[in-house]
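input
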Amino acid sequence: MVHVLDAAALYATIAERQATGVYHGYDGTSVTAKAVMPTLKEIYPNDKSVGQAPHEHIQSLLSKSINTTNARSLTTGWEPKFTNFVENAAQAYASYLEAS
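output
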């Protein structure tokens, strides 16, 4: 997973270096759905009025096995500043709400 500010910094770094190819923004900390869901349920409302319940949708996304690495991204000089999704999720969601 990657914090939105880290993703933005990666995009900026790629653009500045005029890099081409596929770069994965990944915070470097492996997480499981089991570890993330309690945090998400605590901070994110489960509003079913928009269709599928968000918690069910997030659970389904996180239950997929996606193996990735940020090794190529790190070669650009980019480094994630938020290296643990669970610890930074509440702050990230609060920032999102302030911006919308």
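quick obs: The CA atoms of residues 47 and 77 lie 39 Å apart.
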